[in-house]
Amino acid sequence: MPQHETTDAPESRYDFAAIQAKWLPVWEELQPFRADVPGDTRPRKYVLDMFPYPSGDLHMGHAEAFGFGDIVSRYWRQQGFNVLHPIGWDSFGLPAENAAIKRGIDPRGWTYDNIAQQKRSFRLYGPSFDWSRELHTSDPEYYKWNQWLFLKLYEKGLAYRKDGNVNWCPNDQTVLANEQVIDGHCERCGFLVEKKKLTQWYFRVTDYADRLLDDLNQLEGAWPTRVLTMQRNWIGRSVGADVRFSIEGRDEPISVYTTRPDTLYGVTFMVVAPDSDLAAELVADAPAGVRERFDDYLKQTQASTDIERLSADREKTGVFLERYAIHPLSGERLPIWAADYVLAEYGHGAVMAVPAHDQRDLDFARTFDLPVTVVVDTNAPVTGTIPVIPTDPETGEAVLPEDLPPLDPASTGIALAGDGRLINSGPFNGLSKNNAIHRVITALESAGIGNAARNFRLRDWLISRQRYWGTPIPIIHCPGCGEVPVPEDQLPVRLPDAEGLDLKPKGTSPLGAATEWATVACPKCGGTATRDSDTMDTFVDSSWYYLRYLSANDDTQAFDRAEAEKWAPVDQYVGGVEHAILHLLYSRFITKVLFDLDYVSFTEPFTSLLNQGQVILNGSAMSKSKGNLVEFADELRQHGADALRVTLAFAGPPEDDIDWADVSAAGSAKFLARAWRLAQDVRSSPDVRWRDGDVALRRQTHRLLADAPSLVEAFKFNVVVARLMELVNSTRKAIDSGPGPQDPAVREAVETIALILNLFAPYTAEDMWETLGYEPTIAAAQWRKPDPSLLVEESVTAIVQVDGKVRDRLEVSPRIAGEELESLARVSESVRRALGDRDVATVVVRAPRLVNFVTAK
Ligand code: ANZ
Ligand code: ZN
Q1: What would the pLDDT profile of 525-548 be if each residue is shown by its tens digit?
Q2: For residue 539, how far is its CA from the centre of ligand 2 (angstroms)?
Q3: Tell me, what's the pLDDT at 384?
Q4: Any ligand 1 atom below 6 A from CB of 355
């Protein structure tokens, strides 16, 4: 076995810290990732990572997400694209403010200190950011455009103020959007959320509900399925009918929304939401005792969350209002109840109760002993041949067979929700559920007592917050003129200094106490007026930041339309699944609004989405308080940026969680050292002729060049790393015990390793690149095209004989099995012709060269 000189001398040991220190300043100097170089005609890609909150130093989750985004970004650059990969900070918001209150300091200083720290860590980590576009949402240069955006929505009637029952976090002393209430608790602090009646600012997302839902179809296959499902469920479009019921002693009928108009004949009572205006009005004319009971019940209702109210297994409660509705078709009297399982904010805040077919109505009916009428026979067949239902010649009504199976949800306790045929429903008897839905709607419409209707679970977006650290809402309240928008040329409305302000949450915005700031001349009449003291939800900031990166340093406009045309929408978005609903929905909404206002020409902001998993430890989420924490800074110090990045990429599919206890950064460092040493060992010059190299090694190199692109594009980063490891091993063998370090195939393999390693371990790759004789930066070096002739599998020619006479030749793999070769030979057309109807007595198989069919004589 030939032995070759290799470099295991101590001075050539892989020293990640030295390599980082060497290349970081070079990169900072060369700025290879600036995307706005004039005259650049390459096609463009926009790769975006969800921007971080500066609530401390970077953590392992950042390392993972930004590592993955960087793989994609570097990959497209190597593929010849002009890649935009910006970075900024989502620097307004409660975490910063609460931390500042706790420490008795200014949220501004605290925030910007953290940004500086995260920035230092980022720089060392080495992602391919275009730092020239860095933005902070808490800069007036940024939030000025939030205010501009608000005014645009306001002009269009898409931003408005109303009274409403809002989610209130008693701990943070601020309202929350529905999206920020998780299982009835505050998303930020975990406190139980209450309902409170307050005047708040909203964005009219519901106007876009259909488009937000329908356009999800465009993202099919490009966004994770579960995110699409979560968005669809959140928007929650339901289809049915509005039905009007007249009320005894009230002129106006009440409307209810139902998805089951087919069950109209099964309505046995009505239920209104206790916290609805309707309930208040109905109870106003009720006997005094009822009013008292109702008031108590209302208080109890207000203390519970929507989730609790809707939960199926909760004991049903309610108050009979001693009022009656009239069934629109049968004319029956229906008692009206108030009960908390009906929500004020959905549909019309009232339901027609059909206990036989709706579980919550059934539970309620059993609790309060209300009648149950079955109107859909769920045992009757619906599919298959439709039985002819005889009708009574006099009434024209269906005559149903006597032997109906027993149906008694009142005693079984289970509502019959399924499909079936209508019974007890007058002219609709015998129809299937779906046909009945259509017939009943038509009947309601022609009688003028109802119509087809749809409803959405989606609510308008509550955007005002009673907190300091956010974008001031650019509205002035004038005693004479009412709401007056701040004129655009007076933007930004800057936050007043935090000094002297009590930031502690107390239910009203701290900005209101900044009297000097709040008192202004009305832009319309010049009289004394006050600024709106609320600030915007920080999801407003992040709803359009991807556009601000395109014109980050432009102080004349939010973003430049031409830049948006060039770069947007984002080609690849990378971030956590925790943003599956809120942030993505709001960004999609704002994008559609900007499209309608003709600021952009596209309607979806993020063409493709990758959700990375979490970095966990010993099976559970990391948490400092539980002592279950891996610090990014420690890992970075101990293993270096490259080993960290390789470990994260190699751990598994990026969507899966990574348990830091199961991976080995030290192992990754060893792999990098092996790769790095290969470059030291190459003994040929950069101008060698590849085709003189060892074929086996060349084949492996070119197969990786051929396979890696589709693997990267399918986010199979771990597979690419595994394939790199194989190639490193083969190259090491080729150097030590194969054709040797001067073989051109060795250089070709090592250059390929460096080029692909650039996606995962940019420092190591850059250093290898220099050793191999090239100028920085390797990030600008282009992907190499595989040589097709090295990709075809070798083959041998197998001879097929019949009774010793050559009848066919087959190109087969040299490793083909005997049975496989025989069956290939058997189906050969010329063999079959030669055999005719003779039987084969013996088959001689010598894989891979020969098959001989010997016939019976
Ligand atoms: C009668 C009925 C019969 C219903 C039946 C269902 C089944 P989705 O699909 O979520 O839109 N509903 C209407 N408004 C409500 C409110 N404000 N609070 C609570 N529940 C309300 O659900 C629509 C159904 O939820 C409606 O259809 C109504 O009950 C109830 F066999 O009407 B249904
Ligand atoms: Zn005025």
Answers
A1: 999 999 999 999 999 999 999 999
A2: 30
A3: 46
A4: no
CA dihedral 579, 585, 587, 592 (to 10 degrees): 160
Cα separation of 486 and 534, whole Å? 14
Distance CA 706, CA 790 (A): 10
Q: Report residue 389's pLDDT band, with 50, 70 and 90 as the boundaries.
A: low
2: pLDDT strictly greater than 60 = no
User: In the predicted model, is pLDDT for residue 150 greater than 60?
Assistant: yes
Radius of gyration of the chain (CA): 35
Whether the CB of 671 sits within 6 Å of ligand 1? no
How far away, in angstroms, is 353 Cα from ligand 1 center? 8
Q: Is 359 in the pocket of ligand 1 (CB under 6 A)?
A: no
- Does the pLDDT of residue 478 top 50, yes or no? yes
Q: From residue 53, how far is each of 90, 349, 826 by CA, in Å?
A: 5, 38, 68
Can you spell out the DSSP letters for 742-785?
Answer: T-HHHHHHHHHHHHHHTTT-HHHHHHHHHHTT--S-GGGSPPPP
| Per-residue model confidence as pLDDT tens digits over 258-296 | 999 999 999 999 999 999 999 999 999 888 899 999 999
Binding site membership of 343 for ligand 1 (Cβ less than 6 Å): yes
CB 6 within 8 A of CB 736: yes
Does 111 contact ligand 1 (Cβ within 6 A)? no
pLDDT tens-digit map of 646-669: 999 999 999 999 999 999 999 999
Q: Measured between alpha carbons, how far is 160 from 462 in angstroms, rounded to an integer?
A: 10
Q: Which of 248-257, 390-399, 539-548 has the lowest mean pLDDT?
A: 390-399
Residue % of the chain over a pLDDT of 70? 95
786: Cβ contacts below 8 Å, ≥ 6 apart = 702, 703, 705, 706
DSSP-derived secondary structure letter, 426? G
Indicate if ligand 1 lies below 6 Å from the C-beta of 347: yes
Mean pLDDT of 558-564: 97
**197-208: burial string, b at 16+ Cβ within 10 Å, e else:** ebebbbbbbbbb
Distance 489 CA to ligand 1 centre (A): 49
Site to substitute for ligand 1 among 259, 334, 352, 424, most atoms within 8 A of C-beta: 259
Main-chain dihedrals φ then ψ at residue 831, nearest 5 degrees: -65, -45
pLDDT at 198: 84
Average pLDDT of the segment spanning 618-645: 92
Q: Hey, which residues does 201 pair with through a beta bridge?
A: 161
Question: Angle CA(211)–CA(217)–CA(221) in degrees, nearest 5?
Answer: 145
Distance separating alpha carbons of residues 243 and 451, to the nearest angstrom: 7
Kindly state if the Cβ of 354 falls inside 6 Å of ligand 1. Answer: yes
What is the pLDDT at residue 24? 97
Is cis: bond before 848, omega within 30 of 0? yes
- Triad 308, 314, 318: Cα angle to 5°: 90
CA 474 to centroid of ligand 2, rounded, Å: 15
192 DSSP 8-state letter: B
The pLDDT, as a whole number, for residue 69 is 98
Pocket of ligand 1 contains residue 342 by CB under 6 Å:
yes
- CA of residue 460 to ligand 2 center, whole Å: 28
Can the peptide bond before residue 777 be classed as cis, meaning omega within 30 degrees of 0? yes
More confident residue, 304 or 416: 416
The first and second tokens of residue 411, run together, are: 């005693």
Q: Is 56 left (phi over 0), alpha (psi -120 to 50) or beta?
A: left
Strand spans (E) along 430-490: 450-456, 461-462, 464-465, 475-478, 482-485
Q: Which ligand is nearest to the CA of 478?
A: 2
> β-strands 475-478, 482-485: how paired?
antiparallel
> For residue 9, what pLDDT is reported?
47
Cα 525 to ligand 2 centroid, rounded to whole Å: 4
